[in-house]
Amino acid sequence: MPAITLTINNDLISARQGQTLLEVAREHGIEIPTLCHLDGLEAMGGCRLCLVELQGAPRPVPSCVTKAAEGMVVTTHSDKLVEYRKMLVELLLAERTHTCSICVQNNNCELQTLAAKLGIDHVRFDYLHQQLPMDASRERFALDHNRCVLCLRCVRVCDAVEGAHTWDVRGRGSTSRIVADLDRPWGTSTSCTDCGKCVQLCPTGALFKKGATVGEMKKERSFLNRILERRRLAAQGGTP
Amino acid sequence: MSRLRLATAWLGGCSGCHMSFLDLGEQLIEISDAIELVYGPLVDAKEFPEGMDVTLIEGAVANFENLELLQQIRKRSKLLISFGDCAITGNVTSLRNFFSVDDLLTAVYHAGPGSAPRSDEADQVLPELLPRVLPLHQVVEVDAYIPGCPPDPERILAVLSSLLKGEAVTLSEVQRSFG
């Protein structure tokens, strides 16, 4: 692959053609926060936490879906970007009801960790306290919309890795909801295979295994790269 | 050197943050030379005193009594610190914001089991609920935050130690998570 050269935070950095800015930054030890992104799943640019500034661009761009190009001049941590990231996470905390203290995911949660990392010790916006339903109709798993950040990892992994495409999204903006089988109770879904991949990749306590009480839910994600690696080998004609 | 005049207050919360404060254990004795605890659930004082250096406030603002006390504390304290998740986010106390006050009281005291304690007499004694439970910083200016449900004693000690040294309150990344 041809090499290209770009500037990130005043350093000249070489990258391979086709790499995203997020990949290049991480390869060089520059930590850009993400929430919807997960290695192995198709990048979506949904959460906007990975926004970076490009010289000459009128507005920040999401680094997870922006390809590195020759001569680009990128800034990853300007005061404005740091403030935007904080604001985005505060808005997520205010929009739904993420009461950490009574969540199955307490102390194992990506949103909780991210907030602490970004220095959020309070939220400046009004909490909406929308009373959203919980779907506990599936035998092994449950979905609590109050904890969902709409990262769509569940939708993507169910489609691309499990091949079931049980999950989708209904509505727009802050009224968006994750739905199973075109909006039926999850328990009546005929496409869901109960594989649990969506549950393990969910960054918060929105998707969880039934029977977990506060702080008990831990997620196991190693399956994703294992499956994708075997697929890659099989596609090359090797032994999976 | 004069001692740091410290108060604590308990608004809409479970007192778990105060329990965590007590969990400082022997360290409380070590800092007692530098701190004078003058008001709070752990002290027998009826009126909130004037001229506080620091006040730690546990709990969210849930009723008019909380609201009045908080405003009085703000006027009488140099530094006001939101102490624990209820004070900072509303936490469990604010889960009643899913309902209107009328629906809530009806569900709990009229439709629920047992007899309803609501009467003219009760209305004169019990403080009236605010329409919504609020975090402290939506009512008054807050100078620092100690997240946690409850904040563990190490967090409380970190904050008290920096106050005693006259430094700004800063908690490390692992010490400032909610929950």
Automatic annotation (TrEMBL), chain A:
Pfam families: Fer2_4, Fer4_Nqo3, NADH-G_4Fe-4S_3. It is found in: Membrane. Residues 80-119 form the 4Fe-4S His(Cys)3-ligated-type domain. GO terms for molecular function: 2 iron, 2 sulfur cluster binding; 4 iron, 4 sulfur cluster binding; DNA binding; metal ion binding; oxidoreductase activity. GO terms for cellular component: membrane. Coiled coil: none annotated. It comes from the Bacteria. The keyword Cytoplasm does not apply. Residues 139-170, 183-212 form the 4Fe-4S ferredoxin-type domain. Residues 2-80 form the 2Fe-2S ferredoxin-type domain. Its cofactor is [4Fe-4S] cluster; [2Fe-2S] cluster. Keywords: 2Fe-2S, 4Fe-4S, Homeobox, Iron, Iron-sulfur, Membrane, Metal-binding, NAD, Translocase. InterPro entries: 2Fe-2S_ferredoxin-like_sf (IPR036010), 2Fe-2S_ferredoxin-type (IPR001041), 4Fe4S_Fe-S-bd (IPR017896), 4Fe4S_Fe_S_CS (IPR017900), NAD-red_Hydgase_HoxS_gsu (IPR016214), NADH_UbQ_OxRdtase_ferredoxin (IPR054351), NADH_UbQ_OxRdtase_Gsu_4Fe4S-bd (IPR019574), PSI_iron-sulfur_center (IPR050157). The keyword tRNA processing does not apply. Its main location: membrane. Belongs to the complex I 75 kDa subunit family. This is NAD(P)-dependent nickel-iron dehydrogenase diaphorase component subunit HoxU.
UniProtKB/TrEMBL annotation, chain B:
The keyword Oxidoreductase applies. Keywords: Homeobox, Oxidoreductase, Periplasm. Gene3D superfamilies: NADH:ubiquinone oxidoreductase-like, 20kDa subunit (3.40.50.700). GO terms for molecular function: DNA binding; iron-sulfur cluster binding; oxidoreductase activity. This is NAD(P)-dependent nickel-iron dehydrogenase subunit HoxY. Residues 14-162 form the NADH:ubiquinone oxidoreductase-like 20kDa subunit domain. Signal peptide: none annotated. GO terms for cellular component: periplasmic space. It comes from Trichlorobacter thiogenes. Its main location: periplasm. InterPro entries: Hydrogenase_assoc-protein, NADH_UbQ_OxRdtase-like_20kDa, NiFe_Hase_small_N_sf. Pfam families: Oxidored_q6.
